[in-house]
Description:
The chain is an alpha+beta fold and about 70 residues long. About 15% of the residues lie in helices and about 20% in strands. A hairpin with a 5-residue loop joins strand 2 and strand 3.
Amino acid sequence: MAREELTRLTGNGNGECGQGDCPNVYQTASGSFIVQGDVSAAFTPPAGEGLVEIPEAVLREAFRALGW
């Protein structure tokens, strides 16, 4: 899936966070979510899964974008 196929819910695109180099939340066409963030080593996830860490403010921004 290409990034262009996703709806970006966070980041203002002003160059500080607009180059895909910071924590972000995206929504897919099917309604699921893709989270971009720093890799976390909190525990070892099952094969084929990964952990990312994003700030609370990024989730709050995504919730506002969805009207939650």
